[in-house]
Amino acid sequence: MPLSSIVTLDLRNGSVVAEAGVGSGSLSHSILRAVFPKGMLYAYDVDSCRLDSVQLDFDRHGFSSTTKLQQRDVCIDGFGLEQCVDAVFLDLPTPWLAVASAKKAMKNGVPCRFGSFSPCIEQVQQTCNTLRELGFLDIVTMDLCQRVLRVEEAVLDKPMGKDSSEHDQHGASELIVTADKQGMKVQKRKWTYLVPNQRQQPAHSGYISSHYIEQQSLAHKFVAMVSVQS
């Protein structure tokens, strides 16, 4: 799960979060580290075995007092919460079915955020359409493409003039002394640069979308994090 999933939720000590689709609890731990010790995580999953395993991890890592786990299909039964959470994050096959309940769970009068992770663009489109139908406005989406980069080095002739000192200042290169074919000492510049790994294609593309909604004459901000398979 991308780190952006946490960043877009704008979590801090004391935040209250509802997460559906806990899985192994990896993202749950990241959320808890952000909201601990005054915050709370309401975690949901349809698989009781997963919840039992995650609960053991929470107890082992000292998070038992800031978590409440429940076996529940939020797409059918909702979150069972009303106006008490600052953020909601979904990792579900049909996240759009839980949007209405997520909105109901969010606090009134304060900025709240919404996030969803999906493997298919069709899921993303359906979720955003549902958000729009429920009054979310000004939707902005940013694409986050994951790439693997290699660090390479190259030795070139020393560049002259103003650019030389500027590159030294930014640490992009360094001067070295070497010998030419006649054995004469010459100054060259060793450059360090990044090269994309062409043999490995991106596994996922991430999309960060911002949404605004007017509710009871108070502006609420929701941010969605969604990911699609490339």
TrEMBL record:
GO terms for MF? tRNA (adenine(58)-N1)-methyltransferase activity
The UniProt entry's GO biological process terms, in alphabetical order, are: tRNA methylation
The record ties this protein, via Gene3D superfamilies, to: Vaccinia Virus protein VP39
Q: Indicate whether Nucleus appears among the record's keywords.
A: yes
Instruction: State its location(s).
Output: Nucleus
Any one of the GO CC terms:
tRNA (m1A) methyltransferase complex
Reaction(s) catalysed by this chain, per the record, are: an adenosine in mRNA + S-adenosyl-L-methionine = an N(1)-methyladenosine in mRNA + S-adenosyl-L-homocysteine + H(+)
Predominant location category: nucleus
Q: Which UniProt keywords apply?
A: Methyltransferase, Nucleus, S-adenosyl-L-methionine, Transferase, tRNA processing
Q: Which domain of life is it from?
A: Eukaryota
Q: What is its EC number?
A: 2.1.1.220
**SUPFAM superfamilies associated with the record:** S-adenosyl-L-methionine-dependent methyltransferases (SSF53335)
One Pfam family per UniProt: GCD14
Query: Domain tRNA (adenine(58)-N(1))-methyltransferase catalytic subunit TRM61 C-terminal, which positions?
Result: 7-207
- Name the PANTHER family on file: TRNA (ADENINE(58)-N(1))-METHYLTRANSFERASE (PTHR12133), TRNA (ADENINE(58)-N(1))-METHYLTRANSFERASE CATALYTIC SUBUNIT TRMT61A (PTHR12133:SF2)
What is the designated name of this protein? tRNA (adenine(58)-N(1))-methyltransferase
The record lists the organism as: Trichuris muris
